[in-house]
Amino acid sequence: MALAARAITQTPSETYRSAPQNVEAEQALLGAILVNNEAFYRVSDFLEPQHFFEPVHRVIYEVAAQLIRANKVASPVTIKTFLPADLAIGDINLAQYLARLAAEATTIINAEDYGRSVYDLAVRRALIGIGEDMVNVAYDAPVDNPPKAQIEDTEKRLFELAEKGQYGSGFEAFDTALHTAIDMASNAYRRDGHLSGMATGLADLDRLMGGLQPSDLIIVAGRPGMGKTALGTNIAFNIAKAWQGELQADGSMKTVNGGIVGFFSLEMSAEQLATRIIAEQAEVPSSNIRRGRIDEAEFARIVDAAREMNKIPLYVDQTGGLAIAQLAARARRLKRQRGLDIIVVDYIQLMTGSSRRGSDNRVQEVTEITNALKALAKELNVPILALSQLSRQVENRDDKRPQLSDLRESGSIEQDADVVLFVYREEYYLKNKEPKPGTVEYVQWQDQMGAVHGQAEIIIGKQRHGPTGTVRLHFEDTLTKFSNLASEDSLPVAFEP
């Protein structure tokens, strides 16, 4: 009996299964649109022609959409002149089919439900396609396509499907890009500060850059001690603190101000990063916090800062030596689960590429990392703020202001970056040149220190969307905090006795 049962369970079953589809739902939806064009606006936000299973329905929906968007009526009479004359459905001609769609139309109230059904079935068909490709590749994978790469590719395709409802959008009409550009300009006009991108909280930097733009790779570079990590944490906190969300009709949350931040801290632990941000916001030196040298008032400010930080959408990944593929996978997961508006990476030189490339050449590995970061910024449509070290050749010059050629493994970083920011503090170098007190040089040194004390320069060495130049910021060394530098125009009038 056991053998018989086993034989029965191993009997091959019917292997052919039709793809998930509901032609009746497609017909009901198209009929509703042709009877009342308002039905189109209930589904146009998420439903595209390629989501229809029946090719004829794709054509009808696309032509109807074009007519309605042009403020014309889409009906069985008007639409047939824009469809192929030889188009036939079974044993009835096009005019008869359109008339039947209108006659059997659902009500406009049900249009969105039918549209969701069509959309969900299209996503299921796309899932089946991804699954079939995954199985076929796993069976016949070449030597240079290891399982890890297959997993990353499949995860990427699944993420794109989750975000867009389709895999690989391919070519798109240029008018679609034009609409996006016009919407961006319109949003910038209405937004406080008239920024097209995400505000950093540093007014002069925002003015020159227009904020941080979606899909941009922004490199923040500097020598050790210049404050590039401080700039990264300051910007991350400012953006997360300003976050405001708006609940959408589909239950998702849309960011209307600030942003949800993903911070990859390859250098510091999450605890060190939290201590640093608390010190910046509470205005208590982090060294005093670690040593317990704080009074009651300072402790109260620390508690208030911690309470405020507990509410902001700032997520930290403290994994050291993270591979670029792992970073991309975790960023996709964060966007899918919590949302994501900007990524901060501290810093590029602590990341690793694939073992195959990394063993060949470090420059090639950094090239792979920056290429992948730029591709990830475009894929997720978020800015990526990546910190980078500068080479030691800066120290060999009299003028130690950095330039593009000072970037370590600079070829790929300079090429892939949309914006390159250099952090430079003259005070740091002058402090190490203190002459002997009581000399003429010491008096001159004091004058020079007074002129640059508490100041930092953010040098925009490259910017694809705007001008290059230098922005001066206030830098509080003990708090590692950047803030806007008060201009002389905004200072109170000096008292003259």
Give a written overview of the molecule.
- It is built from 20 helices and 13 strands.
- It has 497 residues and is an alpha/beta fold.
- The chain has 2 domains: 17-170, Orthogonal Bundle (DNAb Helicase, Chain A), CATH 1.10.860.10; 191-490, 3-Layer(aba) Sandwich (Rossmann fold), CATH 3.40.50.
- A 9-stranded mixed beta sheet has the order 7-6-8-9-3-10-11-12-13, sandwiched between helices. It has a two-stranded antiparallel sheet with strand order 1-2. Strands 4-5 form a two-stranded antiparallel sheet.
- Helix 15 (324-337) runs parallel beside helix 17 (362-380).
- It is elongated, with a radius of gyration of 29 Å.
Q: Which labels suit this protein?
A:
497 residues, DNAb Helicase, Chain A, alpha/beta, Rossmann fold, two-stranded antiparallel ribbon
Approximately how much helix is present in the residues? 40-55%
Instruction: Give the tally of β-strands.
Output: 13
Quickly count the helices: 20
3D shape: elongated
- The gyration radius over C-alpha positions equals 29 Å
What is the topological layout?
Elements lengths: L1 H8 L13 H13 L2 H4 L13 H15 L6 H4 L8 E2 L2 E2 H10 L7 H29 L7 H18 L9 H17 L12 H7 L7 E6 L5 H14 L2 E4 L5 E5 L3 E5 L4 H13 L3 H6 L4 H14 L4 E4 L6 H14 L4 E5 L8 H4 L3 H19 L3 E6 L20 H7 L2 E6 L1 H6 L8 H13 L2 E9 L5 E8 L4 E4 L13
Helix pairs in contact: 2-4, 2-6, 2-7, 7-8, 8-15, 11-12, 12-14, 15-17, 17-18
